[in-house]
Amino acid sequence: MQDRYTPAQLDTWRRDGVVLIPDFFTADEVAAVTADFRQVFDRTGADDPLVKKKDGEVGRFKPAQFKGVQSVPIDCSPALNLLGVHPALVGFAKAALTSDEVHLYQCQAWAKFTGEADYEQPFHCDYVNHTLTAPSDDAHLNSVTFICIFSDVTEAHGPTHYVTRPDSLKVAGPEATLSGDPAVQQQLKPYERSAAGPAGSLFVYGIDIWHRGTNLVAPGGHRYVMTVCFKNARNSAIDFHAWQFHHTQPWRHIFDHATPDQLACFGVQRPGDPFWTETTLARAQTRYPNWDMTPYREAVARREKALA
Ligand SMILES: [Fe+2]
To answer: Residue 234 Cα, ligand 1 centroid: separation in angstroms?
Structure first.
């Protein structure tokens, strides 16, 4: 799995806080996830963009920009539902966070369509809704955030724009995101870069990185991405979803297809964990009748045999 990114790309992320990795996902993976997006977001973009922002104005957050956001699990195939715990993504997250045990704390599909909103946003840092305090400069105590791109994103398809960490530090630290100061927006502008890329690209950034959404202006255009965030599993200060809160969603699409390593990213105890007993095995199997619990069951059997 290591060959999906290079050590140099990981170093770029450590230094700049951002890296764009083309061809991270295979053509087959892109095709499968794209088919899920088409099924779930059964609509197309309009011919004309919605433009609310006047020339020279800074973009704004608007609820319509988030209309096409759905967190997993979603009623579609395992391709989309398990994308966030793709072993190559988990591997990158472990290396980035210098942690053997990582937790998936955000995983959502986000479809944008020309004309559905004016997607132009101000520069901002995401930490305000990922932690109650502040982002750390220590990657192990921070998080890594991914935008997985599943449609061809040109400048006309609303690419994320960003400022690298070294460039933004010439202007303002991430805490300036709290002030909404328009002067900061203007000062960041000369350093703005684009994360446009073809389907299959991976944009890696962080909760302390200045970035913003841009508008879709391509006639009939759409942009399919998944936002995926990992933290060191022992970091309780950073979070987004409480997965349990989404209990009415179709978790079977995840449990019936995920490996124990993938489920561990959602907080499910691994085989051999003391949580697993004959009782908890039976209860969990009742909840997910088609979950293959063999590794969990075998670990309990081994433990009971050792105690006998
Ligand atoms: Fe953001």
So the answer is: 24
Q: What is the 206 CA–ligand 1 centroid distance (Å)? A: 10
174 CA → ligand 1 middle, Å: 12
257-270: pLDDT as tens digits: 999 999 999 999 99
Indicate the residue type of 161.
H
DSSP state of 9: H
What's the CA gap between 281 and 258, in Å, rounded?
A: 17
pLDDT in tens, 202-250: 999 999 999 999 999 999 999 999 999 999 999 999 999 999 999 999 9
How far apart are alpha carbons 273 and 292 in whole angstroms?
17
CA of 256 to the centre of ligand 1 (A): 32
Tell me the C-alpha to C-alpha distance, in Å, between residue 212 and each of 59, 123, 125, 162, 221.
Answer: 9, 5, 9, 6, 19
Helix (H) or strand (E) holding 97: helix 87-97
Tell me, in angstroms, the distance from the centre of ligand 1 to residue 298's CA. 43
**What domains appear along the chain, each with residue ranges and CATH number?**
2-264 (2.60.120.620), 278-307 (no CATH)
Judge if pTM exceeds 0.90.
Answer: yes
Q: What is the pLDDT of residue 2?
A: 52
* Cα–ligand 1 centroid distance for 157 (angstroms): 16
- pLDDT less than 50: residues of the chain: 1
Q: How far is the CA of 183 from the centre of ligand 1 (A)?
A: 19
Nearest CA to 144 out of 132, 130, 155 is that of 130
Cα 126 to averaged position of ligand 1 atoms, centre (Å): 5
